[in-house]
Write a structure and sequence with these properties.
about 375 residues; alpha+beta; 6-stranded antiparallel sheet; 4-stranded mixed sheet; about 30% helix; globular
Length: about 375
């Protein structure tokens, strides 16, 4: 039942097509990921027939998501590059690996196995992943915040496959004298990628078991992870910006402010070329608008005179900020409900439904407004404060 609700939510709320998979991750359906759909009736039928099915999500153009799939053998590469991977959404996997989610760029990303490094696979066009957060695994970050891969990673993802002898290999074992220093460096890199110490610890534990001879005590590994709490995460990367072509300035995503190119170049470091030039080529937008319910970048559409213009190859930056999704505590809502009933007894149900609609479905405009009338100081603002 939980898997069904998760599958329906992915399809309805995020527009992600899904399909059912067996425990070994192979599809139940005849054509595999090609049968994936957002049709709620089909999804309900599948999970009624296969109630314990894993949720499969296609990668590439079908979902506009590409995934860097890191197995335990790839943890060394992961920690080595953690400070610059800039993945806004990360899933833990059943095998104690990681899925790093990125928005599908304009160039096609192909599937590959250990091309970038041993234990690091790519799931792009023609691939799929299991959506492990629906099956009890941890997820960090918000789907709405995912960005395209950073420039250096995108270069690697679009390179032709190299022979095995040319691939990056995981280093050998570490003996006494080098273990603490190694794990401390990896913890530092992970912290710079904005991971919390309790997220760093399981990665260090896996590295400790795989590379340290003999492994450090668990308490020592935890101490290393906790010691990085005082390290400040990386503040600004190229994935924090989009190039606004009409003004030749750059949208800083966290605040939606426009930066000049000189400020971007002074704040972001790329191995090759100026960050502003890379943004012009790889993350351009042609317009800005405010549109609730749409993604942060609205592709193949412009807006003019209150209506949409469909145009292939263009994109519009959405200034709208979706409300934070917070888990409520129904038991604590009783005083608020009593307050609403006391002030507006005849309109209580209507008022509560109206407020709920504005929070849950901000993109759907309704045909009337609500004005809270009454004397000053009776608690009208108290009704609005929680919502």
């Amino acid at each position: 039942m939980i898997a069904l609700q998760s599958a329906l939510s992915l399809a309805e709320e995020y527009g992600l097509p899904v399909f059912p998979c067996r425990p070994d991750k192979k599809p139940y359906v005849e054509h595999g990921f090609k049968d994936s759909t957002t049709n709620l009736d089909a999804i309900d039928s599948w999970w009624t027939e296969y109630p314990d099915a894993l949720i499969g999500v296609p990668t590439g153009r079908a979902s506009h998501i590409d995934v860097v799939d890191i197995d335990p053998d790839g943890l060394g590469w992961y920690t080595e590059n953690a400070d610059k991977l800039a993945a806004a959404r990360v899933h833990r996997t059943r095998r104690s690996g990681f899925h790093l989610l990125y928005r599908d760029p304009a160039v096609e990303i192909r599937n590959s196995a250990s091309q970038i490094a041993k234990g690091v696979d790519i799931r792009g066009e023609g691939g799929y992943i299991v959506w492990w957060p629906a099956h009890g695994c941890e997820a960090v970050g918000d789907l709405a915040d995912i960005t395209e891969p950073p420039a250096w990673l995108l270069d690697k993802l679009t390179q032709k496959e190299v022979p095995p002898e040319g691939r990056e290999q995981v280093n050998g074992p570490l003996c006494e004298g080098g273990r603490n220093d190694y794990l401390s460096r990896e913890a530092y890199r992970l912290r710079k990628q904005r991971m919390a110490p309790d997220q760093i610890f399981p990665i260090l534990s896996a590295l400790n078991s795989a590379r340290c001879t003999p492994p450090l005590e668990e308490s020592e590994v935890r101490k290393i992870a906790e010691g990085k709490r005082r390290v400040l995460p990386a503040s600004v990367t190229e994935t924090d910006f989009y190039a606004h072509l009409p003004t030749h300035s750059y949208i800083y995503v966290p605040t939606r402010e426009l930066w000049p190119g000189s400020s971007v170049n002074a704040s972001v470091v790329l191995q090759n070329g100026k960050p502003s030039e890379w943004l012009d080529k790889n993350r351009p937008v042609h317009q800005m608008t405010w549109c609730p319910g749409q993604p942060i970048v609205i592709e193949n559409r412009l807006v003019a005179d209150g209506g949409w213009i469909d145009r292939e190859g263009v994109s519009t930056f959405n200034l709208y900020r979706a409300p934070l999704e917070l888990d409520g505590e129904p038991a604590k809502a009783a005083p608020w409900l009593d307050h609403v009933r006391k002030l507006y007894p005849a309109e209580t149900d209507h008022l509560i439904r109206w407020l709920a609609q504005r929070v849950q479905r901000p993109a759907e405009k309704i045909n009337h407004a609500v004005v809270l009338g009454g004397s000053q100081g009776i608690g009208k603002d108290t009704i609005l404060e929680p919502v």
